[in-house]
Amino acid sequence: MAYPAEILQVMERIGLKGVTRVRCKILEGPDTGKVLTRNVSGPCVKGDVIIVKETEMESVGSMGRRGR
Q: Which CATH fold would you assign to the domain 3-52?
């Protein structure tokens, strides 16, 4: 199931493909009010509403370094 989330803070841009790390607050569903860190592709600004498929997983670490 997918749930709407409002972007609270745009944290940083990652890589060259337009991926942005954002903090968002879940608006509906079983985890209403939970604040998550997510990676979002495409343009986004504070106040936008995005749809998240999973509310359990969070974005962690750097995407630039893989298994070294």
A: OB fold (Dihydrolipoamide Acetyltransferase, E2P) (2.40.50)
